[in-house]
Amino acid sequence: MNPLGARRLNRTLLACWALSLVLAVPQALAQRPAPVDGVDAIGITVSDMDRAVDFYSKVLTFEKVSDVEVAGESYEHLEGVFGLRMRVVRMRLGDESIELVEYLAPKGRPIPVDSRSNDRWFQHIAIIVSDMDKAYAWLRQNKVEFASSGPQLLPEWNMNAAGISAFYFKDSDEHPVEILHFPTGKGADKWHRPTNKLFLGIDHTAIVVANTDASLHFYCDLLGMRVAGKSENYGTEQEHLNNVFGAHLRITALRAANGPGIELLEYLAPRDGRPFPTDEHANDIVHRQTILVTPDADGTVRRLTQTPFVSSGVVANQKMELGFKKAVVVRDPDGHALELEEK
Q: Which of 29, 124, 145, 303 is the most exposed place for a label (fewest CB within 10 A)?
């Protein structure tokens, strides 16, 4: 082969090699596991475990899965509470779970009595019901504390939320809880299967945020969740649902591959919601933490260089009393706690 032909062949081989790299990189990225697999459970700090278990089992038909008492240095480093002893009860409704946590020592503070739905520490679980009228009647029969004035049917003009009915109330520790009913064509298919059950499962946990874009960077860019839906809600129905006069919300639904979603609630009005308490601790009753499953706790933490930590770092759990090998608790841009668990 003459020198000119050789140079042309080399250029062709080089171009093919470079093209193969360009094509291989997206494929490798696509095969790389997401930092977070899904939402495993929502953790809720309670003041009296037996009372809380009664409420969630007898009123909302959750089933107890496990009841474990833990203490020791690894849990102190994980939760940022020295000298702790925790009783942790896992409960399931349908396919989804909550973890109730009572700090036997040291005891924390109660929820602020003047808490409002637009305060930044607001977080609830949204339970799907098969019949709103029957669910509301059952809650009234059980004398739950109202947070809404009554069930609200979201109006037809709101395309993304039209026909959804919702009601806020409080559990035995004043934590807000929502029940939701989806009309045909909205919500996951499983919420529309024939059933004789009234309370079906948890669709999402909702958190108040100050800036949706900052939250999207954290949950989507850093943790790998995706946007599953958007809505802008206002009007008398939304005001009476949240019990906030003039409530105007930007709502963004996030999902991972598995488990319930995380719903971001940004109050466009009123803007007077109070920030997350800087001195909040895991034993305070206001505390909740969304438990996320990650395939690589250490690798995920390396992505969170600007994130405030509750834990002293990734904590190994050799005994696996609570079902994880490693875990770390961090805070999102608004202060909401997230526990990243490697199973």
A: 29
- Asked whether 177 and 206 are in contact (CB, 8 A), the reply is no
Q: How far apart are CA 318 and CA 340, in angstroms?
A: 16
Cα–Cα separations (whole angstroms), residue 240 to 1, 41, 129, 168, 234: 83, 28, 20, 10, 10
Q: What is the DSSP string of 158-191?
A: -TTTTT-EEEEEE-TTS-EEEEEEPPTTSS-GGG
- Side chain identity, residue 116: R
CB 84 within 8 A of CB 151: no
Question: For 226, what's the count of Cα atoms within 13 Å in the CB-facing half-sphere?
Answer: 6
User: Residue 218 carries which DSSP code?
Assistant: I
Averaged pLDDT of the chain: 92
Q: How far is CA 341 from CA 28, 44, 79, in A?
A: 25, 16, 13
Residues near 109 by Cβ (< 8 Å), separated by ≥ 6? 284, 285, 286
- Name the 3-class secondary structure at 126: strand
Q: Which DSSP state fits 224?
A: -
Residue with tokens 């668990």: 341
Find the radius of gyration of the CA atoms of the chain. Answer: 23
pLDDT one-digit tens code per residue, 212-271? 999 999 999 999 999 999 999 999 999 999 999 999 999 999 999 999 999 999 999 999
Per-residue confidence (pLDDT) for residue 31, from 0 to 100: 56
How crowded is the C-beta side of 14, counted as CA atoms within 13 Å?
6
Q: Which domains does the chain have, with CATH numbers?
A: 38-110+282-342 (3.10.180.10), 123-269 (3.10.180.10)
Asked if 289 and 101 count as a contact pair (C-beta separation under 8 A), the reply is no
